[in-house]
Design goal:
278 residues; alpha/beta; Metallo-beta-lactamase, Chain A; Arc Repressor Mutant, subunit A; 2 domains; seven-stranded mixed sheet; 23% strand; binds zinc ion
Length: 278
Amino acid sequence: MTDFGPVMPAFAELADGVRRIVAPNPSMMTGPGTNTYLIGKSEIAVIDPGPLLTDHIADIRDKAGGDIRWILATHSHPDHSPGVARLAELTGADVLGMPAPNGEHQDKSFHPTRVLSDGDILETDEFVIQAIHTPGHASNHLCYRHAATNWIMTGDHVIDGATVVIDPPDGNMTHYLESLQKLKALRPAALLPGHGARIDDPDAAIDWIIQHRLEREEKVLAAVKENPHLTTRELVPYVYQDVPEKLFAWAERSLQAHLIKLEADLSTTMETGRWKII
Ligand SMILES: [Zn+2]
């Protein structure tokens, strides 16, 4: 996850009433950092305040230049939502999103005051935002469509210049591919990802991800066929020759997601932790 192109400015106005602040949490998994979006000018919705970083929370309030009335989270992973509770406490804003599911790698401090469902709308005097449920990377993942620009804030569903980890059981490869098709069918004009720069050709970006995942699936099938009775961990080097070994632990999670999908598709099965072709 290192190919994020040129370094991004920490603050940018992307369109009238659409601004982006990059949280100072750059890493191999977060690229330049988590993108926080500010929608509106006098009454503002903040999308993904990111991790709980005092300076970043202060920066969001500083740059807002108006009342922060709503805080929306795309999902409850540790690099997206832990700043929500603190920002809500400081501003009195409503918190919108889907509650964190049980399990690892979840921000348990995330508690929406308004639980969103697919298609729900936040309508204000200045803007309209629509929630789109996009499970796959996370079961409670929402993308947000900004009506005036027809841009979609995609969180970790689609990021710029890299693929995301699908980490079962909360991550689900079948749902992920379905949610990509769902996003594409909405014909967005651009995507504003949770990490990296604006994506101006959504169709090409989404098609690339789907193609990449299906090619990986082919590799998984071939690897299980040629090397039956291996565990998921033992299969990693056969499927991820292009991935540096230090990322194998994450690759194993996505490989597990592929194998679960193939099992649901009746192509593979597992006995005592070892995979084989049906
Ligand atoms: Zn995530």
